[in-house]
């Protein structure tokens, strides 16, 4: 069975990633929100409290050093909508992440939008959007591959 590749689109203040997953939305939701699954396709250094006001914490390498990304879940509507704030520890403000899952019994369409980049200095936006577009494309490619056998 072929694994779908994510489709990534960027704009001056946003990015969008879409990918088709093999499992139905209820199963895809668990792959997206349950710690044991997140550790496999994203990182063991990601913690997410899957509920409104739940906290997100991502420890990762950026530019040769460790960076911390934090967020707060603002919408938690299983199995279709997960929205949260998103900011690295050095950013002056939050961006917004929204993940939508749709489909029926034979698969799931996942769409991520990452907006709110105007919270960052203008000179930093384009390189950060490009970097995040590459990163989200990679992570959701890993999710799609993991979802085949999960």
Describe the structure.
The chain has 150 residues and is an alpha+beta fold. The chain has a single domain, classed as Alpha-D-Glucose-1,6-Bisphosphate, Chain A, domain 4 (2-Layer Sandwich), CATH 3.30.530.20. The chain is 29% helix and 40% strand. It has 3 helices and 8 strands, in the order ββααββββββα. The protein has helices at 25-33, 35-41, 122-149; strands at 7-10, 14-21, 46-48, 55-62, 65-77, 81-88, 95-102, 108-115. An 8-stranded antiparallel sheet has the order 1-2-8-7-6-5-4-3. Helix 1 packs across helix 2 (35-41). The longest helix is centred in the last third of the chain and has 28 residues, at 122-149. It is globular and about 45 Å long. The mean pLDDT is 94.
Question: Any chance you could write out the topology, listing elements then pairs?
Answer:
Blueprint (H helix, E strand, L loop, with lengths): L6 E4 L3 E8 L3 H9 L1 H7 L4 E3 L6 E8 L2 E13 L3 E8 L6 E8 L5 E8 L6 H28 L1
Antiparallel strand pairs: 1-2, 2-8, 3-4, 4-5, 5-6, 6-7, 7-8
Helix pairs in contact: 1-2
Residue share in β-strands: 35-45%
Tell me, what is the CATH class?
Alpha Beta
CATH fold field value: Alpha-D-Glucose-1,6-Bisphosphate, Chain A, domain 4
Shape: globular
Count of distinct structural domains: 1
**N-end to C-end Cα span:** 14 Å
Order of helices and strands: EEHHEEEEEEH
Main sheet: strand order:
1-2-8-7-6-5-4-3
- How does the helix and strand content classify structurally? alpha+beta
The CATH homologous superfamily:
START domain
Total number of beta strands: 8
Major β-sheet annotation: 8 strands, antiparallel
Helix content: 25-40%
Question: What is the overall pLDDT average?
Answer: 94
Please give the radius of gyration in angstroms. 15 Å
| Count of helix runs | 3
- By CATH, the architecture is named 2-Layer Sandwich
Poorly predicted runs: none
């Amino acid at each position: 069975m072929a694994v779908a590749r994510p489709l990534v689109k960027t704009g001056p203040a946003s990015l969008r990633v879409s990918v088709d997953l093999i499992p139905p939305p209820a199963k895809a939701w668990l792959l997206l929100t349950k710690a044991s699954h997140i550790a496999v396709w994203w990182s063991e250094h990601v913690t997410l409290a899957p509920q409104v006001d739940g906290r997100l914490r991502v420890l990762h390498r950026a530019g040769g050093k460790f960076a911390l990304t934090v967020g707060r879940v603002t919408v938690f509507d299983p199995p279709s909508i997960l929205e949260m704030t998103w900011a690295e520890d050095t950013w002056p403000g939050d961006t917004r992440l929204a993940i939508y899952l749709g489909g029926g019994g034979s698969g799931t369409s996942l769409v991520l939008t990452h907006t709110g980049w105007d919270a960052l200095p203008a000179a930093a936006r384009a390189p950060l959007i490009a970097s995040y577009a590459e990163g989200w494309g990679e992570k959701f490619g890993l999710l799609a591959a993991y979802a085949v056998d999960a």
